[in-house]
Amino acid sequence: MFDFDFIEILGLVAAVLTTSAFAPQVYHTYKTKDVSGLSLPMYFIFLSGLLLWILYGVQTGSIAVIAANVVTSGLVIVLIVLKIKYGKTRS
Asked: How far is the C-alpha of 80 from the C-alpha of 47, rounded, in Å?
């Protein structure tokens, strides 16, 4: 089903790099509980795009596209949950 060639490996490396870019934001937000700079609408729109990329990856058989977008979706979902949890004003 999946054919690993140079281009696919290149895609996997790119996927790891771009996906891992979200990890520091998730870590920082979790530790500081500061979500003031996060835009909930932006992350919902972004998540919608990621889900469509997953469907595209499944249809084309691209493991790099599937893997990157599944992991990124997980990180984005964590940020959305943190934004909802910590975005409420505290009295």
From this structure: 10
Confirm whether pTM is higher than 0.90. Answer: no
pLDDT (0 to 100) of residue 15 = 86
Residues in the chain: 91
User: Residues of 21-34 as b/e, b for ≥16 C-beta within 10 angstroms?
Assistant: ebeebeeebeeeee
The residue type found at 63 is: I
- Which residues constitute the domain of residue 80? 39-91
Conformational region of residue 8, where left means phi above 0, alpha means psi within -120 to 50, and beta covers everything else: alpha
Please indicate, yes or no, if residue 23 is contained in any of the structural domains. Answer: no
